[in-house]
Specification:
- There is one protein chain.
- By secondary structure, the protein is an alpha/beta fold.
- It has three domains: 235 residues, P-loop containing nucleotide triphosphate hydrolases (Rossmann fold, 3-Layer(aba) Sandwich), CATH 3.40.50; 203 residues, 3-Layer(aba) Sandwich (Rossmann fold), CATH 3.40.50.300; 78 residues, no CATH class.
- 31% of the residues lie in helices and 26% in strands.
- The protein has a six-stranded mixed sheet with strand order 6-9-10-3-11-12, with helices on both faces. It has a six-stranded mixed sheet with strand order 18-21-22-15-23-24, sandwiched between helices.
- The longest helix has 16 residues.
- The chain is globular and about 70 Å long.
- The protein starts with a strand and ends in a 32-residue tail after the last helix.
Length: 533
């Protein structure tokens, strides 16, 4: 008997200027399965899913649902057919509340009056059922990236779709949230929903997917049963070579203190209270210090305060012995700071600028790129071309490509290229590998270690426990706006790190300067600190 598929995308071809994003791709989704879609940054995964969701129209090919051809002209058609999508780059109205975004387009009403209470009740039930807790009355512009991701997931669940597309849904979630989402996906599949799951994270695919289809440079490579394959085999299919999964680095040789943070306070962007409360730490040349913690515990505000994106309410920031607490953003940059931001769209790129202009956002005023008040476009283009080649940034029109049209992973690679190439002494990297494939992650990790080994200081903020443990030389754990422990990744475990992140353990004796040799994770007494809900 012929297999009945929930969705079939047959011989799909989608072209953009200078590139064939999808080249004769066939993808078949069974009813009730979790089907992973794997590929390098720019391989065409999001484009293919955007075709299914009606955001793009293919030049060639056909889409069938339950064996019948369908025409999906726009997302309204997709929703009418029961197709929902959680986008990699959030489709949210920033000046609206979480509640208004979730119900937007399908607002319950009676006689022309909006029934917000009815929507709130349904969304609250969904959030409790799936553990996706959000503040329904908060403005999107005021909440963290992780909370925005939860909003997107609730937005899809609210519409009761049967075909669910998750485009990199875990890129900004904490390990605990990822575990919860994996269970949510299993439950949804058990209820008969069919899930397409785009991810670069091989561990997640191995854990939750039934089958996996691989794309490379716009072409279909193959589909495998996940239970019959390995991470190594999937990575070879994805990038065409073997990938090193462990970070190769020698022991750190810390030098002089470059950055000193003393008793820092930063106001919350959401509430009246302080999100950062009395935080103090040092970062030395020749080391990678990681701020670890569950999303929403003050990491974002801490980095905003350090980089000048938000004013600090108290405390001081000392760089090379100079108080830079009230320096402008440009003055920090020209003093030798690089910043890979958490939100690449809001703080990393000017999306409507071409790639070459984005590559010189912090340097356009330098003599190499400006003369007599006029941009030296030839020099800018040559510099951009060099970075594109060095960091393997893929785009349809090279340096002329509008940043908005690039894949999320390649946007991230462009930012990393720009920030690391400036030879700054201090590199603040927030989620630097978010949305990157294993090959690109391997390269970024190698670059950060090289920066460390060249005597520069790296302050890393990551929600990826594996990245925290393998890349860091020291780990500072934030919980409810405070540093609650300083750990040596060689002497601690993921489980112990998780206890600190959840607030179940505290070790305040090593928050400043050198680690206290008399206090180790093995001897720290546990301290109950309540829930982080």
């Amino acid at each position: 008997m012929e297999q009945q598929y929930a969705v079939e995308m047959l011989h799909i071809t989608k072209r953009f200027p200078g590139i064939i994003a999808n080249d004769d791709i066939t993808l078949q989704l069974k009813k009730g399965e979790i089907h992973a879609l794997l590929g390098e940054n720019g391989a065409g995964k999001s484009t293919l899913m955007s075709v299914l969701f009606g955001l793009y129209q293919p030049e060639e090919g056909e889409i069938r649902m339950n064996g019948q051809p369908v025409r999906i002209k726009d997302p309204n058609d997709a929703n009418a057919l029961g197709i929902g999508m959680v986008h990699q780059h959030f489709k949210l109205v920033e000046c609206f509340t979480v509640l208004e975004n979730i119900m937007l387009g399908v607002e319950p009403n009676k006689a022309g009056f909006l029934l917000k209470g009815e929507a709130r009740e349904k969304i609250t039930e969904l959030s409790e059922r799936y553990g996706l807790y959000v503040d329904l009355d908060a403005l999107i512009e005021d909440i963290t990236v992780g909370m925005q991701q939860r909003t997107e997931i609730l937005k899809m669940l609210y519409r009761e779709n049967d075909i669910l597309i998750f485009d990199e849904p875990t890129a900004v979630l904490t390990p605990q949230e990822i575990t919860e989402l994996m269970q949510i996906m299993r439950n949804l599949a058990a209820e008969g929903k069919s899930i397409l799951f785009i991810s670069h994270k091989l561990n997640e695919i191995m854990e939750v997917a039934d089958r996996c289809s691989v794309l490379r440079k716009g072409k279909y490579i193959g589909t495998v049963e996940v239970k019959d394959t390995t991470k190594e085999e999937l990575s070879r299919m994805m990038v065409g070579r073997d990938v090193e999964f462990t970070v190769a680095k020698k022991d750190a040789e810390p030098g002089e203190v470059l950055l000193e943070v003393r008793d820092l306070y930063v106001k919350s962007r959401v509430h009246d209270s302080d999100a950062v409360r009395g935080v103090s730490f040092d970062v030395r040349r020749g080391e990678i210090v990681c701020i670890a913690g569950i999303d929403g515990n003050g990491q974002t505000e801490l980095i905003y305060g350090l980089t000048g994106l938000e004013p600090v309410r108290g405390g001081s920031i000392i760089y090379e012995g100079t108080d830079v607490t009230h320096y402008s953003i440009r003055k920090r940059i020209t003093s030798g700071w690089s910043h890979i931001p958490e939100d690449r769209h809001k703080h990393g790129l000017v999306l409507d600028y071409p790639l070459d202009y984005n590559m010189v956002l912090q340097r356009y005023f330098e003599p190499e790129f400006t003369k007599g008040g006029m941009l030296r476009k030839g020099n800018i283009r040559a510099y951009s071309d060099e970075l594109i080649e060095k960091y393997d940034v893929r785009s349809g029109q090279g340096s002329a490509t509008p940043a908005r049209s690039m894949s999320g992973g390649n946007q991230q690679k462009a930012i990393v290229a720009r920030e690391l190439d400036r030879d700054s002494d201090l590199i603040i990297a927030v989620q630097p590998t978010r949305g990157l494939d294993v090959g690109a992650i391997e390269n970024i990790h190698r670059q950060l270690v090289a920066q460390r080994d060249a005597g520069r200081a790296v302050l890393l903020v990551s929600l990826e426990l594996e990245e925290v443990m393998s890349l860091s030389d020291r780990i500072l754990v934030m919980y409810e706006g405070e540093i609650v422990g300083e750990l040596d990744p060689k002497k601690t475990t993921v489980e112990e790190l998780g206890l600190y992140m959840a607030g179940a353990k505290k070790n305040m004796g090593t928050a400043l300067g050198e680690p206290d040799p008399d206090v180790s994770p093995d001897t720290t007494e546990g301290q109950e600190a309540g829930s982080n809900e």
